[in-house]
Specification:
Largest sheet: 7 strands, mixed
CATH architecture of the largest domain: Alpha-Beta Complex
Number of strands: 14
Shape: globular
Helix content: 25-40%
Number of domains: 2
Strand content: 15-25%
CATH superfamily of the largest domain: Medium-chain alcohol dehydrogenases, catalytic domain
Distance between the termini: 13 Å
CATH topology of the largest domain: Quinone Oxidoreductase, Chain A, domain 1
Length: 306
Amino acid sequence: MPQAVRYEEYGGIDVLRVVEVERPVPGPGQVLVAVKAAGINPGEAAVREGVFAERWPSTFPSGQGSDLAGVIEELGPDVEAFAAGDEVIGFTHERASQAELVVVEAADLTRRPEGVSWEAAGSLFVAGTTAWAAVRAVAPGEGDTVVVSGAAGGVGSLAVQLARRTGATVIGLASPANHEWLAAHDVVPVAYGEGVADRVRAAAPDGVDAFIDTYGDGYVELALELGVAPERVNTIIDFPAVEKHGVKAEGNMDGASAEVLAELAALIADGRLEVPITRVYALADVRAAYEEVERRHARGKIVLRP
């Protein structure tokens, strides 16, 4: 029987189990994917802990995960765009991707291009579409200066690259350990922490035009302190600040489509976008993987390989 990640109640990593489940059966418009890689995300930990129980409640037993890449094993009725054996990148909204076999809507899949690793493909959906939407929300362009908080994280590492592709100057807030990586991607690295406002002003003497917050913890207030207009501030995590200050909160659901995935995958295949991978864990080691994710210091993505 195939294995999948499950939890029976809200809680920390100790509630996670890898258990045997019935083989899923694809329905009309669906396919069965043998998962080669599944990314994990901080938001999944928050859902599992019950932080968003009112906004996104869990139904128990619950699976985990949205991101996936793999090989199609079986087609449901009315699927004509794919065939068994096709290598695909996709997503599920059913909290189910961290498993050996997953049923996916065919409309939520795109083909995996040559040159895109399974690890990059399997961890692309949440971080990639969130970064795509966040950059679009603040509309950077030639001559603009954009600041990105959490610039070396899963979303931030992609957002800085996508923002840089618009011709804007990009300042990335990150720990010194990540400054070399940022500089290598033509991003101006600035250390976070006490005095960050002064360091940003020194790096951007003509001012800051837009701000993408991927971390929370007061960065919306920093953006406003730096003189950024609320309509050019986007946070993917600080929802109270959205209500208080009227800033934007565009993210994954604003970019969630196979078309956006295909666009991002093409950039990766052409060497124009990098998905940095911190570590790859076996499915059985899902607890250790989330323990690392929840420390919030990993560069780029952490991936499960069933």
